[in-house]
Amino acid sequence: MSITTLMPIPSGINQNVKAARQQTMISLLGNPRATYSSDCQNPTLPVIASMIVRDQVGPLKVTGLRPAVESLKDIFTDIKSACPNIYPALGHAGMLCARFVRGSTTAISNHSWGTAIDLTLDGQLDVRGDGRVQQGLIDIAPIFNSRGWFWGAGFRTEDGMHFECGDDLIRKWAADGVFGDAPKAGVATASLLTLGDRGPDVAALQTALNNKGAHLLVDGDFGRNTQAAVMAFQLSHGLVADGVVGDKTHGLLF
């Protein structure tokens, strides 16, 4: 079987690893830019720009956030040892790219902080959203997970090429002082959900809101419609209608 053979998404991926939430990234590192579009731009926030490095990672030359690049070096060392047939076939389609998540105008891609990478195998990019992933990506995904990285095949819209630093890893780096002078205002709790978040927790939130009378598309994307539904629920239960799912809102919903 070729490493580029397309296979169904395996079960049990991303065990104990969650995608880094937008609020986690902004509260611990700051917002890379004041404005975004669907096009790649560079971060303008000085504290983030100062941590962007260009370095050799295995067979690749990458540009990304320093701690993410250093972590990738460890991951590629593991891949070289465990998957020597895949290691020389690895390429990438970018790491640093300040933009919105594809198809969204609220969710900021984690590429914006340089903490995510899109990988190719033998020059081939896995097609996003077709529900199938390259065999080689399946083989290396557990190595990324073991280092605290989330595999994009676990997003509601499958993104098998995509790997990003997980929420707990970002929080650990912040606690260890890796981000230096980066702002730490209003650090989000691990259970908080807000505009721009995405993933299984958001899908569960949308299902819970629908069970309370909302009519949301359960797509795992915390956009404006989900925010409005949260605010309506909060108002109906005497809570501050800030559109943020904290402990009180979560408790009433679930």
Automatic annotation (TrEMBL):
Any one Pfam family match given in the protein's UniProt record, by short name: PG_binding_1
Domain Peptidase M15C: 103-164
Domain of life: Bacteria
InterPro entries membership: Peptidase_M15C, Peptidoglycan-bd-like, PGBD-like_sf, PGBDSf, Zn_M74/Hedgehog-like
Peptidoglycan binding-like domain ranges (all copies): 198-251
Protein name: Peptidoglycan-binding protein
Record organism: Paraburkholderia terrae
